[in-house]
Amino acid sequence: MPSDVNGACYLIGDGASISVWSDPWVPWIHGFKPVPKTDSVRHTPLLVSQLFDASTHCWNSRLIYELFDEASAHAILKIPLHVSPMQDKLMWILDPKGRFSVKSAYKEAIAHGPGPNPSEGLWKKLWKARLPERIKMLIWRIGSNSIPTKVNLSTRLEHVDPTCPSCKSGTESTVTTWSPPPTGWIKINVDAAVSGSTSALGVIAQNHKGEVISIWGRCRSSCPPLQAEAVALLWAVEIANREKWTHVIFEGDAKACFDCYQLKPPYQTG
User: Fold this and answer.
1) Residue partners of 258: CB distance under 8 A and separation at least 6
2) CA 83 to CA 78: how far, in whole Å?
3) Residue 152 sits in a domain of what CATH number?
4) What Cα–Cα distance (Å) separates residue 170 from each residue in 142, 147, 158, 160?
């Protein structure tokens, strides 16, 4: 589950895995992140476990009032601590059972920041599509420009070089990662995931403007991952033929699978 979305907040156990300044862990506060009393203390690495009084396993109230503003300190001191040690757990507060879903993350991101227009029918169809969750999340992250590319990281972190590690000549952005095809072409991205007794296949087509034309998904009996990728690519070729697309680029992450295909022009693999 991503911890950088407003719907996620840690349930404190031993506090050993929660960063005081960068992780969401304080209920009743916007963004679930406490506000420091002075900006200087924000740069001090600190874990939530270091705010405990080791002798009583309660909050160290003196230290908390020294580090945080009044509202944050009051909120922290209201958080109950477990008597017996347990691991910290990241909870999804938008679900009564704390379970994360791509659909609820999408709705939360749309409500609190830029992203794809929720009224667009294709995005609504995405959440209903029988696609692997990782594919749905990838599409959503591309649409909301939250892929951790070098460009995005450089805007949030210091000393990050935005240069693309592949071409070395430009910056690595979402456009680089999800680049549209040339004018007059269609790009079809394929992927597959294997879980238990099921293989899930996903196919996405986009035009030269980077706009998603259509999304397809299907499930079949389980098979080796490489075989599932090959079936997904074959299905994508069949879709292109059915749609009568004459200039198509096929793209996926299974290089060994793509290298085996010899497509005749104007089809290409990328």
Assistant:
1) 233, 250, 252, 269
2) 15
3) 3.30.420
4) 19, 17, 19, 14
Residues 108-139 pLDDT 10s: 665 655 544 544 566 677 777 766 676 676 66
Residue 69 lies in a domain: yes
61 and 165: one domain? Answer: no
Mean of the per-residue pLDDT values of the chain: 77
How many residues are there in the chain? Answer: 270
CB-neighbour burial class of residue 121 (10 A; exposed 0-12, middle 13-18, buried 19+): exposed
46 and 176, same structural domain?
Answer: no
109 in a domain, yes or no? Answer: no
Domain presence at residue 36: yes
Number of neighbours of residue 35 by Cβ within 10 angstroms? 18
How many domains, in total, are found in the chain? 2
Q: Which two tokens stand for residue 94?
A: 């938008």
Distance CA 268, CA 184 (A): 14
**Cα–Cα distance measured from residue 243 to residue 34, given in angstroms and rounded to the nearest whole number:** 53
Cα–Cα distance measured from residue 203 to residue 236, given in angstroms and rounded to the nearest whole number: 6
Domain, as residue range, for 222: 116-269
Kindly state whether residues 139 and 256 are assigned to the same domain. Answer: yes
Same domain, 132 and 243: yes
- For residues 49 and 20, what is the distance between their CA atoms, to the nearest angstrom? 9
| Distance (Å, whole) CA 252 – CA 254 | 6
| 107 assigned to some structural domain | no
More confident site: 164 or 203: 203
What is the value of pTM for the model shown? 0.43
